[in-house]
From TrEMBL:
Protein name: Metallopeptidase
The UniProt record lists the keyword Transcription regulation: no
Co-factor: note: Binds 1 zinc ion per subunit.
Presence of the UniProt keyword Kinase in the record: no
An example Gene Ontology molecular-function term: metal ion binding
Organism name: Streptomyces caeruleatus
N-terminal signal peptide: 1-27
Region: Disordered, residue numbers: 33-62
Source species, domain of life: Bacteria
PANTHER family: LEUKOTRIENE A-4 HYDROLASE
UniProt-annotated binding residues for Zn(2+): H331, H335, E354
Length: 465
C-alpha cells in the first residue's frame, strides 16, 4: 500500500492497516483459498511482467464522478530476456481517445516514479515507462504514479447513468509482453480489447458516505471522517479491478456453496427484474463452481440499473441492464471463469471467453441446442469463429456469431464427445489453465486428448482455426 501519510488522520491509517489485515486473512485459506493448480504455471510462462501487485488509494468527489490518488504496481520479469520497459494501458481513454480542445482524456497519469514516462500512444491508451535499469529474470521492480479519473458523460462500462457511476476499465493496468511481443492493441467499443495477467489488488476508495461503492474483491466499508467513508478491497489473482458508485439499494446473501452475493440496484430498476437477477446470479455462481471449479473469490457484486446496455463482466463484479424479465446475469457470471479465471487475449481470440460464457448460459437455462448449428450462416469465406477483434470491429454486423455460432459449436462438440466427456473436458481444461492464459490451440489439444476420433473435420466445419 502507498504511504499512509496521505490519509487524513493517524486513526484512519491504523484502521486501514487493520482492515486490510482482516481482508487478507479472509482470502488466505479455507474455502476461499486462492492457490492455483500446479499445471497453470506453464500456461503463462512466456507472459510478462507477471505476478503484478497493485496498491491504490483514491478519493472520490461528491457524486463519484471524479477520483484522484496514487497507484503503485510492482511486478516480476518472467521472461528470459531483461525487462527494460513496461507499458501501462489507460483503457478508460479508449472511447474519447486523446480528448478534444479544452476536454482532456478521462484518464490522466502524472508524477511517474520508478521509471521515465514517454508520450501517450495508441490513441492515448498506452504509456511506455522506461525502467532505470534492466530487470533480470525472476527479479521484481515497481513503478508508481498519480492517477486522475473523470467518469465520461455516457452510459457505458466507464460512464454514468443518472446518479450512478460505473468505473470499468478505468484503472490503469500493465500491458502484457509474450511471444508475440507487447500487446498494444487498439480499444474497440464493441467487444473487448483487454489482455491482462492474474494480479493482486489492494485498493482504498475514499468516498462520500451517502454513496454505495461495490467493487472487485473482498470489501469492507468504514467511516472516515465527517460525511466520508472508505471502502477497502483486497482481490487476489484477478485480471482487472472495477467499481461503481451511487445511491444504490442493497442486499446481501450467501449461496449454499458459500459465496457472498452482494446486490446493488438503482431505485427505478424493476423489482421483478432485481429478484430474478439475484436468484439466477446466486444459482449460477454455485452451478458453474460445480461444473468448472469452485469460485475462488468469495464474493461477487451484481450492479443493476434500468438503462445500462446489456451487461459487462469484471472479476467479482458485473454491470447489468435489468428489466422486469431479468438481465444477462448468468452469461456475465460465466465470464468469471471464461476470461476471469481461465484467461485469454480478448482482442486476439474473443471466442474463448464469449462463446464459452454463452455455452454455459445455454446449459444453465436448458436451451434446446439440437440442430442450432444448421441455422448458422457465414457471411463470407473469410469469416471464422476464431477471428480477432480486428475482424469483428471491421464487421460489427457479424459479431453476433461469437455468441450464436460459438455456443452452437460447443454444443455440437458436446454431442460428438458425449455430455459426460464434455463436462470432464471443461473442468480439466479450467484446472489446467486456472489463473493462466489459454489459446485456441490449447483448447483444441485438450478436446482431442479426450477422444479417439479425429476432430480435424469438426474444427474445419465449425471454422475453428
Amino acid at each position: 500500500m502507498p504511504s499512509l501519510s496521505a490519509w487524513p488522520s493517524k486513526s484512519l491509517s491504523r484502521l486501514l492497516v487493520v482492515l486490510l489485515a482482516v481482508l487478507l486473512a479472509q482470502s488466505a485459506g479455507g474455502p476461499d483459498a486462492l492457490s492455483a493448480p500446479p499445471a497453470q504455471a506453464a500456461s503463462a510462462a512466456a507472459a510478462t511482467p507477471d505476478r503484478p501487485r497493485y496498491d491504490v488509494t483514491l478519493r472520490g468527489n461528491a457524486d463519484g464522478s471524479r477520483w484522484t490518488g496514487r497507484q503503485r504496481v510492482s511486478f516480476r520479469n518472467a521472461s528470459d530476456r531483461p525487462l527494460r520497459e513496461v507499458y501501462v494501458r489507460l483503457w478508460g481513454n479508449g472511447a474519447d481517445r486523446c480528448g478534444a480542445a479544452g476536454t482532456p482524456p478521462p484518464v490522466k497519469v502524472s508524477k511517474v516514479t520508478g521509471g521515465t514516462a514517454g508520450r501517450l500512444t495508441v490513441n492515448c491508451t498506452a504509456l511506455r515507462i522506461t525502467l532505470p535499469k534492466p530487470v533480470a529474470r525472476g527479479e521484481r521492480a515497481a513503478v508508481a504514479f498519480d492517477v486522475s479519473l473523470t467518469v465520461p458523460e455516457r452510459n457505458s462500462r466507464f460512464g454514468r447513468e443518472g446518479a450512478f457511476r460505473f468505473l470499468g476499465n478505468a484503472l490503469p493496468v500493465l500491458a502484457v509482453h509474450d511471444a508475440a511481443g507487447w500487446h498494444l492493441d487498439p480499444y474497440v467499443p464493441t467487444g473487448e480489447s483487454f489482455y491482462a495477467l492474474a494480479s493482486d489488488f489492494r485498493v482504498a476508495l475514499d468516498h462520500p458516505a451517502a454513496l454505495e461503492v461495490p467493487a472487485t474483491g473482498r470489501t469492507l466499508t468504514r467511516p472516515a471522517g465527517p460525511g466520508r467513508s472508505v471502502t477497502f478491497s483486497v482481490a487476489h489473482r484477478v485480471r482487472d479491478f472495477a467499481w461503481a458508485a451511487g445511491p444504490f439499494r442493497t442486499a446481501t446473501e450467501t449461496t449454499p456453496g458459500g459465496v457472498r452475493v452482494r446486490s446493488y440496484w438503482a431505485p427505478d430498476t424493476s423489482a421483478a427484474g432485481v429478484r430474478l437477477t439475484r436468484q439466477d446470479g446466486a444459482a449460477a455462481v454455485d452451478r458453474f463452481g460445480e461444473e468448472f471449479g469452485r469460485y475462488p473469490y468469495g464474493e461477487i457484486d451484481l450492479v443493476m440499473t434500468s438503462g445500462f446496455g446489456g451487461g459487462m463482466e469484471y472479476p467479482g463484479l458485473v454491470l447489468l441492464g435489468t428489466t422486469e424479465e431479468g438481465s444477462a446475469v448468468v452469461h456475465e457470471v460465466a465470464h468469471q471463469w471464461w476470461y476471469g479465471i481461465v484467461g485469454n487475449d480478448e482482442y486476439g481470440a474473443p471466442w474463448l471467453d464469449e462463446s464459452f460464457a454463452q455455452y454455459a448460459n445455454a446449459r444453465f437455462y436448458g436451451w434446446d441446442t439440437r440442430g442450432c448449428w444448421s441455422d448458422v450462416e457465414w457471411p463470407s469465406d473469410r469469416t471464422t469463429l476464431t477471428g480477432s477483434m480486428a475482424y469483428w470491429a471491421a464487421h460489427p454486423g457479424e459479431y453476433h456469431l461469437i455468441y450464436t455460432a460459438g455456443s452452437c459449436a460447443l454444443a455440437d462438440l458436446e454431442r460428438v464427445l458425449g455430455a459426460d466427456t464434455m463436462a470432464r473436458l471443461l473442468k480439466r481444461y479450467a484446472e489446467d489453465h486456472w489463473y493462466g492464459v489459454s489459446t485456441t490451440a490449447a483448447f483444441k489439444q485438450a478436446a482431442q486428448s479426450v477422444t479417439g476420433e479425429d476432430l480435424g473435420p469438426f474444427w474445419k466445419r465449425h471454422r475453428i482455426r
